C-alpha cells in the first residue's frame, strides 16, 4: 500500500490523497508481481463546506482498501472560498487527474465511483448532474464521468437546505444557485445511485432523498436506498472506527457492508 498527496490547484487547496495498492518490484530473480487494474472509490468527506471532515476520510478509505479497491480522498474549497465555480472545479480536476493517471495507480477507468458524505454528497451529486455540461466543466464528459454515485446522508435539495439557514456552513450553502442544486438538475445522464440515510437525521431530512429518488425513477436511473431508523447525522462508517467515544446506533454500521456488496455486484467483481 502507498500514500501520496497530489496538489491540483494553484492555491494548493484542491488536493487528492491517494491511498492505493501499488505494483511491487520482485525481490527475487524470476518472480513477477502481477497487478490488475482495480476499481477506485473517490471519497468526498462532508463538513458543510465549512471544513473537510477527517472522520469521513482515511478510516473510510481503509475499509475499501481491505476489500480490494483503490482509493482517493478529495480536499476541496471551503468557507468563503466555497462557491459553485470553485467546488465544481475541485471535483472535475480530481476526476480528470484520476483518469489521466489510471495506469500509474492501476485504476480501472470504467469503475470509478464517487462516495460523498453530507456536503461531499452534494458535491458528488452536483458532478453527476453536470458532467456532460462541457460549457461549465471545461472538460470532455468521458474524462470526468462517474460510473456510480454513492451518497451518505447527502444534501440533495439545496433550496430547502439554504432556507434552513444553518450556521457554520460554507458559501455554496448560504445562497441558492440552481446550477448547484442536484434536485433541480436531474437528467438521464446521472449514473446508477446508492443512498444511505437515517430517519432521525436532524440536519438533512430523509424526505429530500425520497424526492430525489422519485425524480431519478422518472429517468429510469437505477437506485438503491437504505433508510435506517436510528442514527444522527455524520455517522461515517457507523462504527468505532469513526465514532469512538460517542453514543451511536451499532447496527448502522451494516450500511458499509451493504455498500461493498452493492459495489461488487455493480462492478461485477464477485
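Sequence proposed for the structure above (270 residues):
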Amino acid at each position: 500500500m502507498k500514500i501520496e498527496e497530489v496538489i491540483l490547484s494553484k492555491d494548493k487547496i484542491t488536493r487528492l490523497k491517494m491511498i492505493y495498492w501499488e505494483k511491487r518490484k520482485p525481490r527475487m530473480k524470476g518472480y513477477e508481481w502481477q497487478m490488475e487494474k482495480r476499481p477506485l472509490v473517490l471519497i468526498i468527506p462532508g463538513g458543510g463546506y465549512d471544513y473537510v471532515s477527517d472522520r469521513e476520510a482515511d478510516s473510510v478509505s481503509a475499509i475499501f482498501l481491505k476489500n480490494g479497491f483503490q482509493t482517493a480522498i478529495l480536499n476541496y474549497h471551503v468557507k468563503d472560498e466555497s462557491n459553485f465555480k470553485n467546488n465544481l472545479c475541485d471535483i472535475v480536476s480530481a476526476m480528470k487527474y484520476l483518469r489521466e493517471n489510471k495506469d500509474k495507480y492501476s485504476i480501472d477507468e470504467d469503475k470509478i465511483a464517487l462516495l460523498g458524505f453530507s456536503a461531499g454528497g452534494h458535491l458528488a451529486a452536483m458532478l453527476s448532474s453536470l458532467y456532460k455540461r462541457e460549457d461549465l466543466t471545461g472538460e470532455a464528459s468521458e474524462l470526468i464521468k462517474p460510473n456510480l454515485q454513492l451518497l451518505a446522508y447527502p444534501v440533495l435539495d439545496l433550496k430547502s437546505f439554504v432556507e434552513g439557514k444553518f450556521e457554520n456552513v460554507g458559501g455554496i450553502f448560504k445562497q441558492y444557485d440552481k446550477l448547484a442544486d442536484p434536485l433541480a438538475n436531474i437528467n438521464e445522464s446521472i449514473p446508477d445511485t446508492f443512498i444511505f440515510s437515517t430517519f432521525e437525521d436532524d440536519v438533512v431530512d430523509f424526505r429530500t432523498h425520497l424526492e430525489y429518488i422519485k425524480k431519478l425513477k422518472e429517468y429510469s436511473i437505477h437506485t438503491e436506498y437504505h433508510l435506517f431508523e436510528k442514527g444522527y447525522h455524520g455517522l461515517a462508517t457507523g462504527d468505532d472506527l469513526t465514532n469512538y467515544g460517542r453514543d451511536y446506533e451499532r447496527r448502522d454500521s451494516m450500511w458499509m457492508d451493504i455498500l461493498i456488496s452493492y459495489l461488487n455486484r455493480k462492478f461485477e467483481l464477485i
